[in-house]
Amino acid sequence: MARKKWLDIYHILRDRIIDEIYPPDGDFPTNLQLMKEFEVHSATIQNAVNALIRDGLIFSSGSNPNRRKVRPIPYRSNRRGDFLEEHGDLGKEELFDIKILYEEEDLPKGILDELAPPVLYYHTKQYRNDILIAVTRSYIPSVVPLKELREMLKQPHAMIYDCLKLLGIDPVDCQENLITSLATQSEMRDLNLPVQSSVPIVRVVRRVFESDGRLVQVCYMVDRADCYEFEYRFPLF
């Protein structure tokens, strides 16, 4: 049985992206350009393009869904400090939700095993070069006045660890657990990924401690693995 034409075109375009014939973060050809090159109908090109989108190799750029860009080279993250501090002018953090949770039933079971209410819930979306690359859900116990911390974190460009320091807490130690997987349906929605996407994600659980060992933050993160390269350095004992 002959292979479908759109699949042949998909593999050609995929190889061009991997070989950087279409450079990372550059414009991807329009459907019309590809129709002329391959001499096929629009539906055939759209099937190939949809497969590239599901793979995370191209993405829509700006408000025009017909303008697409090639996936950028994965960013090497050293995982130190706040997101905005690490990414600088290329980073943007959007506050999605922030509230104080006073009842045990409002907390996930995993959090209840480690923290007791009241707890500040802090939910953000993180962008690099206008690409949504991570979603975070932080839980902060009442080691500081939570209402004051909530108002500080509502300010533009607020960074959580700087805010904690201003309130007398000095976060000094960070532990992260990472699991790589394909995204669930809810994670696809969180990261604005196409339905049935095959883009890999990294689930990160971060725990941050003060110098006396007190737990000051538990954060659940979902990061796009195709946009991130994680870099760690630690002593060998």
Structural features, described:
With 237 residues, the chain is an alpha+beta fold. The chain has eight helices and ten strands. It has helices spanning 5-18, 31-38, 42-54, 83-87, 109-112, 146-153, 160-166, 185-190; strands at 58-61, 64-70, 75-77, 91-101, 119-128, 131-141, 171-182, 200-210, 215-224, 228-230. The strands form three sheets. Strands 4-5-6-9-8-7 form a six-stranded antiparallel sheet. Helix 1 packs across helix 3 and helix 2 crosses helix 3.
Offer a quick outline of the entry:
The protein is an alpha+beta fold and 237 residues long. It contains 8 helices and 10 strands.
Shape: elongated
**Range of strand content:** 25-35%
SS class? alpha+beta
Helix content: 25-40%
The run of helices and strands is HHHEEEHEHEEHHEHEEE
Strand order of the largest sheet: 4-5-6-9-8-7
Strand count: 10
Keywords:
237 residues, alpha+beta, six-stranded antiparallel β-sheet, two-stranded antiparallel sheet, 10 strands
Task: Write the topology of this structure.
Elements: H1 5-18, H2 31-38, H3 42-54, E1 58-61, E2 64-70, E3 75-77, H4 83-87, E4 91-101, H5 109-112, E5 119-128, E6 131-141, H6 146-153, H7 160-166, E7 171-182, H8 185-190, E8 200-210, E9 215-224, E10 228-230
Parallel strand pairs: 3-10
Antiparallel strand pairs: 1-2, 4-5, 5-6, 6-9, 7-8, 8-9
Helix pairs in contact: 1-3, 2-3
